[in-house]
Amino acid sequence: QVQLVESGGGLVQAGGSLRLSCIAFGRTFSSYNMGWFRLAPGKERDFVAAIDRSGDNTYYADSVKGRFTISRVNAKNTVYLQMTSLKPEDTAVYYCATDYTTLTSSSRWWSYWGQGTKVAVST
Fold it and tell me: Which residue among 40, 70, 92, 95 is least enclosed by CB atoms within 10 Å?
């Protein structure tokens, strides 16, 4: 079993930045791939970014490419999502997810999820 706890959400003006953190408790963090997804009101949960267990490979949704950066520090059991040039359409609850094998953009294949952290971007 793996427990994920997100933090770092908040209210920010358009054009601003936030850094989300997700700390994992349980099994060996370095053995797991990590991902970020988001759920906006009235929408389905969307893929944002993913990083493999080594941190060597990262993947992004087109909507955030060039603005968001996913990274991890295995020694701290933590994955980060640095968000810059935020837009009102980035407003959502952001979820951290982990899985031993998958890196897919489809949320159904990720095994463990955090409770989410809310990000609101004002105009």
Answer: 40
